Amino acid sequence: MAAQRKTSRYVVPVxxxxxxxxxxxxxxALAASxxxxxxxxxxxxxxxxxxxxxxxxxxxxxxxxxxLGLPAFDxxxxxxxxxxxxxxxxxxxxAQLTKLVSGTHTLKIAADGPExxxxxxxxxxERYSLVHNGxxxxxxxxxxxxxxxxxxxxxxxxxxEQELPVSPKELADEVLKAAGDTTSITVGGTANVxxxxxxxxxxxxxxxxxxxxxxxxxxxxxxxxxxxxTLDSTSGGxxxxxxxxxxxxxxxxxxxxxxxxxxxxxxVTEGDAAGKALxxxxxxxxxDLEKALGDLGLGGLGEPGKNxxxxxEVIGEGWTAVARFDTGAPAxxxxxxxxxxxxxxxxxxDGVSGKFGSGTVFKTKVVNVLMTDxxxxxxxxVTPQKLVDVANSAKK
Length: 396
Known about the structure:
With 396 residues, the chain is α+β, with helices and mostly antiparallel strands. 23% of the residues lie in helices and 32% in strands. It has helices spanning 2-17, 43-52, 74-81, 93-96, 168-178, 271-282, 285-295, 339-348, 384-394; strands spanning 57-65, 104-112, 116-123, 126-133, 136-141, 146-151, 183-193, 196-205, 212-220, 226-233, 241-249, 267-270, 313-315, 322-326, 349-354, 357-362, 368-372, 376-380. The relative contact order is 0.16.
């Protein structure tokens, strides 16, 4: 069942949202034809339109790109997971789909309700395909000519391990659920996305100190389906997340789209065997990661008993909320952490000091983390100065 849940985590979002975008970031899909002339609509009406959308069938193409303001992940992930994150030599979705957290990728998708979905990752002449058809999942990596197969997968929409919103609609739902008195929501005109007329819903923080400048959701005027999701940072530059279709069709895909035939000469690995093979070749990535975090004094983050019975303490509210952890251990000294981890962190970190003492702020374009020298950790989508201010206020 563990292997089933793992696979479902990557397949289910396509059915749940009816819009298949994998992980974060899609490049802009606005056409050059100008903004369409649509009837006026209020923000409340547009939100209701999104909530009422129930897209079950579609096919389309989109590109995936993300800019977190981070150096390359390759060295860190390779050191922790022994190369598993690169997905080389395996068709297992848990290895392949981690590619989507960085870089730019083109994908093609098809969905026919909760029972059938297909996602194809295009990488030059290489192809990686993931097909869910009824109670079976097939995955094929053309680079290694390997096939992953799993039968008896969990019913779509019921995977307990689905944790991250991974489509424009799910991203929109998460933002709208979190919106409250600290948020401004307006309609920012119209757009043409993948040949479809759309309204632009603009979500902006009212609070000072957030790293989020604005979130824009392009909503299909006819169906209410989010077609594009853009997250801009106060640091400027390229959007952190820009999720939009370049082509989309809401018609029912042909049933043959979800058929799968094992390519000639391909090696087939079944469910649990794939996980065991990956573990044998690359080691137990989650355990290795936990060890690496432990070496950094972060091994107990989020565990009951380490940060209180209910997990980390949340300071503040809305867009400037900060999570406070107590690792129970001083920050590592230079040279104590694995070199691939230490090198990555050194490239991100800046030394800071205040009433709380001293520490290091690790920065991205959205989430920043302050690790104090006495083992406290403050994290949030806030500026480094906001983290220092919170740490100073928390000092007794």
